[in-house]
Amino acid sequence: MTDGPDEFRTEVETKVAAEFGAERDAERVADAAVELRESASVEWSPTFIAERMADAPKGDAVPEKWNWLLGYVGGSADDEEYRLGE
After folding, report:
1. Contact residues for 14 (Cβ-Cβ < 8 A; gap 6+)
2. What is the C-alpha radius of gyration for the chain, rounded to an integer number of angstroms?
3. Which of the 8 DSSP states describes residue 55?
4. Average pLDDT of adjacent 10-residue blocks, the chain of 86 residues
5. How far apart are CA 2 and CA 28, in angstroms?
6. Which strand (E) or helix (H) includes residue 39?
7. How far lies 43's CA from each of 9, 59, 70, in Å?
8. pLDDT reported for residue 85
9. What is the pLDDT of residue 63?
10. Do the Cβ atoms of 71 and 52 come closer than 8 Å?
11. N or C end: fewer C-beta atoms under 10 angstroms in the chain?
12. pTM for this structure?
C-alpha cells in the first residue's frame, strides 16, 4: 500500500465529493474504502473508486453506488461488512 490510511481517506473523500457533490456520503465511502483496503488488502486507487462509482446506475445515491462497486468487483470486496446502509 503506497499511501498511509489518512492520505488515502482524504483522496477518496475528495474525489467522491467532487464527482457526486455529497460530502457526508463521501466521508462514509472513504471510511469504508480504508477499512476494505486494510482488512481485505484491496488496493484500489481513489481515482478507480470514483470512476467506477460513476458507472453505477444514474439514479442511485452515493451509498448505493459504493455498494454497486463492491458487487461489480466481487471477491473479498463484496462482503456485507464493507457495504453502506442508507
Report:
1. 26, 46
2. 11
3. T
4. 83 96 94 93 92 95 96 90 88
5. 21
6. helix 23-40
7. 13, 27, 13
8. 87
9. 96
10. no
11. C
12. 0.90
